[in-house]
Amino acid sequence: MKVFATAAALFASLTPYATAGYVTMSGTNFELNGKPFYVFGTNAYWASETTLSKTGLATIFNTMAKNDLTLWENGKATVNTGDNGLGYFDLVVAAAKAAGVKLVVPFVNNWSDYGGLGVYVQQLGGKYHDDFYTDEKIKAAYKNFIKTFVQRYAGEETIMAWQLCNECRCTGSGTLKESGNCNATTLTDWMAEMSSYIKSLDSNHLVASGSEGFLNTDKSVYVYSGPSGVDFDANLSIDSIDYGAYQAYPDTWGVATSEAKSWGVKWIEDHVASGKKAA
Fold first, then answer.
1. Residue 136 CB: number of other CB atoms within 10 A?
2. pLDDT given for residue 81 in this prediction
3. Is 152 helix (H, G, I), strand (E, B) or coil?
């Protein structure tokens, strides 16, 4: 069964409640220990590189919604598991657990910020941004990072879900260009392969694609035309993808201010329909 969620960047102060246990699914809803689990949170892209003390991290997490937090972790071919590598993330997990916060953890960023998937391509001899999704050597290096990371935290209830990639697309923001051969099939096949691999290592946690949620139903409208290889419905149909998250950047996507409200309502309704169809 598939559930769906809107990706949001929010700070909230909520009454703490017990968060022990793994988040699961029931129909189109998240559940925690058999009860509905409603997600409010913040995109804490900085947390994976923080050098804050345990006290500093605890202060930050205790000001956030005690429910969900999105983090970015970027890997290289050689995984640093020491105190100045994954050891930093151990501190993040410990602070989140103490504050009753669940974590959603992307393994890599599509964009060049904080390294990005282009690091894999450039270090391992690739030529195009989308080589990340097709080059066997690059995919093997990514799987190596996933294995190291997932096996370290497979038994950690503080983690709600793994994301394959933050806003994965055929194109990126660095110097690498698109090959011209990347499409919705390319990304969907890659998502199926990587999500299945994660499930083979870890049956406790949910897995999501991490895409922006572009639909592929109307070629005349940008966000509905499957741009840059993203097809929300196709991604959500993958057996090893548990839920879909979607985002909304109306100004960036060319929506007129006067139409933003009606556009936003339709965007939400269309993704709700996709979630129900996949459930």
1. 7
2. 73
3. helix
Domain containing 201: what range? Answer: 3-278
How many domains does the chain contain in total? 1
The CATH number of whichever domain residue 211 belongs to comes to: 3.20.20.80
Alpha helices in 127-176 (DSSP H): 136-153
Distance CA 208, CA 194 (A): 10
Nearest to 140 by CA among 197, 208, 86: 197
Q: Which residues of the chain have a pLDDT value below 50?
A: 1, 3-16, 63-76
The strand ranges marked E within the chain are 3-6, 23-26, 29-32, 35-36, 41-43, 68-70, 103-106, 159-163, 206-208, 243-246
Amino acid identity, residue 144? N
Q: Name the 3-class secondary structure at 13.
A: coil
Other beta carbons within 10 angstroms of residue 245's beta carbon come to 23
Give the pairing type, strands 29-32 and 243-246: unpaired
